[in-house]
Amino acid sequence: MAHFLRKAVAVAAATACIGLGTAVMGSANATAATTPANPFPTHVTYKTGVLPSASAATRDAAVEKQYNAWKSTYLVHGCASDEYYVSTKGDGDAPNNGPVSEGQGYGMNIVPLMAGYDADAKTEFDGLWQLVKDHEDQYGLMQWQLDGKTCAYADSGTPDAATDGDLDIGYGLILADKQWGGYSADAKAWLGRIYAHDVASDGHLKCEDDGPTTDTRPSDMMLDHLRAFAAYDTTHDWNKVVTRTEAIVNEFTSAYSSAKGLLSDFVVNANTTSPKPAPADYQESQPDNIVGYNSIRVPWHMGTDALLNGATTAATAYNDAKKWSACAKSVSGGDPKKVYPHLNLNCTVYSTSDQAEEAGDSVGPAAMAAGDQAWTDAIWNQLATNPFGDGYFGETIKTLVYVVMAGDYWTPAAASAPANDFSVSVSPASGTAAPGGTLTASVGTAVTSGSAQSVALTATGAPSGVTVSFSPASVTAGSGATMTVTAGSGTAAGSYPISVTGTAASGSHTAGYTLTVGTGGGGGCTPAQLLGNPGFESGTAIAPWTQTSTLGFAPINNDTADEPAHGGSWDAWTNGNGTADTDTVAQTVSIPAGCAATLSYWLHIDTTENTTTATPDTYKVQVLNSAGTVLSTVATYSNLNHDTGYSQHSADLSAYAGQTVTLRFTGTETDANGGTTSFVLDDTALRTS
After folding, report:
1. How many Cβ atoms are within 10 Å of 588's Cβ, its own excluded?
2. Where is the signal peptide (predicted)?
């Protein structure tokens, strides 16, 4: 196989590929699940090292942004109607921006990792896999280079396969099987072919399936992949491949780069205990005896193995990652842009004639494994840029490095997907009622790992005469319910702890709620509803409400076609403009002394924000004094609380009896992620008892 050279021989994009596609095709695995077991983001606790200083939500959002850009540019629907491929656009690695097996493998890793965020991930993965199956060489592995228009083999001689692509395709099949199921037979058959044709008899990885058994390529040393193969495919001795790969790393670096841990683009004598750098012109026109566009991927792979498997299991990768990270930081002065693609094995710059984002980006996982926070943060910050205008190679590697550095790179080597689990919360966590009075609170549930499951809600600890009910009584984790607490007329005064329990197949979780029963109206309080115009049905005469909008809109409106009211035809619709703004509605009210007071309201939240963690849009319910100082924020909601209809919420305001306060509902939209959220308020009440 004629290997290709990155960058140095890259040419301008040739004639355009067939159009990027979004058409849905039939699945090749009809029995597989469509709901991913590990939806993005699946936050992973790595076994060593540090994460970037940015928050998890910020990291996830950055990955999503990069994925969107990568998918729209490089994921091509073609050549057949049931095929997808990863285009080499911008790098000239195949005619007409066609695919190479390396890129196809990258895509088959990226897409399953983004399932859950990308609703079309399974369709796209099946299309990527279909193209592989349609273009196998004599050994049943993917032909390494294809034309972008015809998908015909684009190199001379008998079609052959490249080991890096083969390994990533195999890893992608395991990811897909763990994510959706249904790929086990394909994955094990593929791994069997790799073992038969890409692995030499001593266990080292060849460069290609029809190549010599005496050489290897360090960029193929994906130790985390090999460990996953060993856990998944016990028919073949993948542990022998792990052991021999680690031995070559140690034998080579001790002889040629003991202080820096660098490996050359190609290595010969790999079938002996004395591997050495290949001749300078061994396979490509760049020097093959130093670090180049192949082995710049080593710190990414070594760092990832160390993060996933720890400093003991992955000792070779951990030690090499630390050295490689230190070299890159030193030679660049801590500037990722100055990690040049070509380095001598003593960690001096071979040439500054070319630069590439992937040279610095690939060091990110190694810097994390090394525990170097400042260096990790510098590389993380570079990922948001493309300083040299890189194409397919740099942007695709960046996408995978982004997932690792964000803390979302889960390993399919685990015996099973994360166990299903959930949490339960109650808001507000307390309430006061007179005998005969009623309170409501919101019960929230959330998926904490695995997949959503049915959760049955119950309550214990209520005193005699107090009833607690839930609507609905059973929810899917991630949804909420309204809890209604009714104190019987004969309930004795006092405080009572109530346990709210959610029970699912995975077990039970409990949240606390404190009910205080007072003397109520018997002490001189006249039950009343204190808010004026509580359902906004006075129309444009909004008093006693006031309203503001930084965009000049009137939140109180009767646009029931777009946002129906809960009752009547008027509501208070804040935000939802697709532009950063802050909207408020407020009312000043006096709460009589000696009264228990409960605020209730109906709220509908809908959103086009495509995130499960970030909260760019928020809604606050607050109590202010006459000077405008916030006394309490009684509830906060966000785009993550979206639902298909209205939900009733309540808050105990008895603490403000005898005071004049302002109730303010504030919606804030940042427009940070490109989506928009509407918070619609209706049918408010402030009842005393």
Report:
1. 15
2. 1-32
Which residue out of 126, 164, 220, 609 is catalytically annotated?
Answer: 164
What's residue 418's pLDDT?
54
Residue pair 525/688 in contact by the 8 Å Cβ criterion: yes
Q: Which residues of the chain have pLDDT under 70?
A: 1-33, 414-419, 449-450, 519-524
C-alpha 489: how far from chain center: 51
Helices 223-232 and 298-313 pack at an angle, to 10 degrees, of 60
pLDDT of residue 12: 27
Strands (E), 7-136: 75-77, 84-86
What is the reported pLDDT for 478?
A: 84
Report which residue type is found at 29: N
243 backbone dihedrals φ, ψ, rounded to 5°: -60, -45
Tokens of 289: 């005896």
Q: What is the DSSP string of 573-589?
A: EEE-SSS-EEEEEEEEE
Give pTM, 2 decimals: 0.61
Q: Using CA atoms, how far apart are residues 203 and 198, in angstroms rounded to an integer?
A: 9
Nearest to 589 by CA among 670, 508, 656: 656
Residue 120 known to be catalytic: no
Q: Please tell me which residue in 60, 83, 91, 102 is annotated as part of the active site.
A: 102
Distance CA 441, CA 455 (A): 17
Closest CA to 354 of 259, 287, 279, 257: 287
Measured in degrees and rounded to the nearest 5, phi and psi for residue 280 equal -60, -35
Report how far residue 80's alpha carbon sits from residue 275's, in angstroms, rounded to the nearest whole number. Answer: 43
Check: CB of residue 299 under 8 Å from CB of residue 319.
no
Q: Token pair of 227, please?
A: 């460990």
Q: Give residue 623's pLDDT.
A: 95
CB distance 673 to 614 below 8 Å: yes
pLDDT at 526: 84
- φ, ψ at 67 (rounded to 5°): -60, -45
Query: Residue 487's pLDDT is what?
Result: 85
